[in-house]
Write a structure and sequence with these properties.
HD/PDEase_dom
């Protein structure tokens, strides 16, 4: 069993019943990750695994700090002794440093989990931020608007997303450019 298959099974176990909408989103994010194989090569399995696991920190049994990237990454590291790259991708997905700052957890996040290579983090951000809560593909601007409407303007997640918007949109644009380059036969 490859890393992505293991990750899928673990995510299903943690999310499918308690958080069916989060599970639908996760399935959509993983499907997006699979489309990036042409630009990721050997790292495609790692990205797909991280896509399956990026939101496991929302699982009720894993919530500790309330900051899902950190809670999920800790679970992967401490309970499953998961690959370091995988835990780092989960910890830092979708410009998580902005929410970590809002929660007063930036030092904890950065002490426990080094940042992963920017290309991989951008790829996971692209997958997450172009997938709706129901697992459907959507534009990054629509996804950001959906997050704001779900949480409301004063919520710390909305504040974090506002601050993270340049980081998120830059990541999405970088992956879109890489995909365009590969499709047009350029050096990817």
């Amino acid at each position: 069993m490859g890393q992505a298959e293991w990750a899928r099974d673990l995510a299903r176990q943690l999310l499918e019943k308690p958080l069916p909408r989060r599970w639908a989103h996760t399935q959509g994010v993983a499907a997006r990750a699979e489309t990036l194989a042409p630009i990721l090569g050997e790292e495609a399995d790692l990205l797909t695994a991280s896509a399956w696991l990026h939101d496991i920190g929302y699982a009720p049994e894993l919530v500790d700090t309330g900051f899902h990237p950190l809670d999920g990454a800790r679970y992967l590291r401490d309970v499953h002794q998961a690959d370091d790259q995988l835990a780092r991708l989960v910890a830092h997905h979708s410009c998580a440093v902005y929410e970590a700052t809002e929660r007063g957890l930036l030092d904890v996040l950065n002490t426990e989990f080094d940042r992963e290579r920017p290309e991989l983090v951008e790829a996971l951000t692209y997958c997450d931020m172009t997938t709706s809560p129901d697992g459907l593909v959507l534009d990054v601007d629509a996804r950001l608007a959906e997050i704001h409407s779900r949480y409301g303007p004063e919520h710390l997640v909305s504040r974090s997303i506002t601050n993270a918007t340049p980081c998120i949109t830059s990541a999405v644009r970088a992956i879109q450019a890489a995909l365009t380059d590969v499709r047009s036969g350029g050096a990817g």
